[in-house]
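Support case: S-adenosylmethionine complex. Customer-provided input:
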Amino acid sequence: MENKIYNGNCLEILPSIEDKIDLTFLDPPFNQNKDYRFHNDNLSDLEYWSMMKEVCSKIFNITSSGGAIYFMQRDKNTENVLNCLRTTGWSLQNLIIWKKKTSAVPNSNKFGKHYQIIAFACKGEKARIFNKLRISPPLPPNYKNAYENGVFVTDVWDDIRELTSGYYAGDEAIRTENGDRFHKQQSPISLLLRVILSSSNPYETILDPFAGTGTTLVVAKQLQRNYIGIEIDPENVMTIHDRLNTIRKSDIIEKYYNDYIHTDNLKRIWDIDNQAIIKSYKKEQEVSLFEV
Ligand SMILES: C[S@@+](CC[C@H](N)C(=O)[O-])C[C@H]1O[C@@H](n2cnc3c(N)ncnc32)[C@H](O)[C@@H]1O
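Agent response - structure generated as follows:
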């Protein structure tokens, strides 16, 4: 199949997709009154959740049997997310807690917020693909022996750094000419790497219907997955094309390979498209692949 990037409203485009989707990463605007150029982020709860149901249902229709969806949201919307997935046919597999590495957001009359949720669900009772990744987290202080073969990734992800604002966003955040972040909701490469490695195999098809800066597609491309992205804002679509044509040093996934080294089938699922990366480096002459 051919990889595709659509500029438009996913509600209109999803029904016209003829390819079967194996995995979707769903990171919509969270309806927090953020300043999106082409989207009203201040809908009533009713409008917002009926729109999200329509999106989930349309994705379900084009998903292969046993295919997966990862729906990211704020913790306060957990009930709505679960309801939205259940009523549109999806079967919940895990409610993943993505624990932030930054300090918790304080609250005066309840516990401070320290995580975001990612609901992992599939079409049918069980996911057709689930690759059991192994990582090597730092040993807790009271442990004497190192993990020889790492440990399985659980439903608490506390080792992935979000791209925060300002200096700490690091090189990965795309910047405008005056140094501001181009897109405040850009997801980290390492988050998509975990999602794609866990729930797909090479040459399967990955969808991101709210593609933003194209993080999902940039990781899918490097891992030899097919990809389809939809994004409503034309400026973002241009950024996606640039990001895919020239893989930036900070977007290269190879630096994470050793984090997953104890995964049994890593060589098979991490089928890196070195040619694509080398070509884009040659084009840019930014840095040698071997320095990464
Ligand atoms: C939370 S951001 C996604 C960020 C993305 N994960 C990344 O790494 O850059 C949501 C994106 O959805 C886009 N969007 C909003 N409504 C849309 C719609 N109806 N169809 C397609 N894209 C839409 C917004 O322009 C925004 O870029």
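The beta strands are 4-7, 21-26, 63-73, 91-99, 115-122, 134-135, 151-152, 156-157, 205-208, 226-231.

Case will auto-close in a few days if no follow-up is received.
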